[in-house]
Amino acid sequence: MSLSIRIICSPDGESISEWTTAFPENGGEIGRGYGSVMQLNDATRTISSTHAIIRKSNRGYQILDNSTNGLFINGSDKPLGKGNQSTVNDGDVLSIGKYRLLVSCFSPESARSQKLQQPSEYSELDDDPFSSDENTIIDDSMKAQTTLKQRQSQQHSDVNFTITTDNVVEDDPFLNDTEIKEKQHSSFSTNFDSVDDDPFKEEDLKGSLSFPMREPQTAPAPVQSLSQFDMNFAINQLRHIEEQMKAQTDTAIEMAITRLLKEMSPEYIESMFNDISSPSMFSGKPKYWEMYKRYFERQQKNRDWQVKFHAYFQDSLRQQRNAGEKT
């Protein structure tokens, strides 16, 4: 795993000799002091000599806060704290003084294509249900034949041919059915007075036809007005929050663009080119235009403008939110 850190935001007036620093395999130090793997120039002495220490562990790279003024990760309002450590991931932004540092971690092992492994669930397919279908069908057919033979033998054993002197005609089902019908007909009664549950009685009919007059229902006005008031209050609060967020976002965008244009200004770039070119007596006037074209192409290729704008925007938005909470 290789680790590199790139400067995406620097304080005004500080010369940057190397924008991207590649760290050794075991990590290194970040600070103002001489001998640090990533040395940051700081005239205000806000950055400590050894501001942060990065070490490699089994869980990846760990960063230790060894500063006096604090180490901030990913725009956090609270510093990590001296003596505390945290895991560093790819894409994290470290805030050290007025510097913003972008962390890049690349692991060649994770980039390799892994071999396709057969899941362990496939081992359970050894018990193929289709392999036993034929045996199951044969067993079921054998059981059905055996059961059929047993039932046939029981039916043959239950049949007893006996001679009786009883009149077989008396057991005629049609005769019995006729007698039952005659009995039911004779038991039919025409007395309707015994029917107590007549739904069409005169009293019940009158009661069912008498519809009570409904009184007009009026909803309680205070409850409705209270719920309507709560809804209007919630809508107004939501609109106020949306307007406040929009105003903060617009202000943060304007602040980020202002900082980015300041870094692209001729005065800022000329001073930076003078520090890099180091003109001497024998060398002529620096070719600023050629240097600017190479610088601009490198910035576009590395997407430094986009990264800086994103970092400036997040920083400005955080400042706007903090100012809104204080007010």
UniProtKB/TrEMBL annotation:
Residues 112-121 have a biased composition (Polar residues). Residues 112-135 are annotated as: Disordered. It comes from the Bacteria. Residues 28-78 form the FHA domain. It comes from Parashewanella spongiae. It holds the Pfam family T6SS_FHA_C. This is FHA domain-containing protein. InterPro entries: FHA_dom (IPR000253), SMAD_FHA_dom_sf (IPR008984), T6SS_FHA_C (IPR046883).
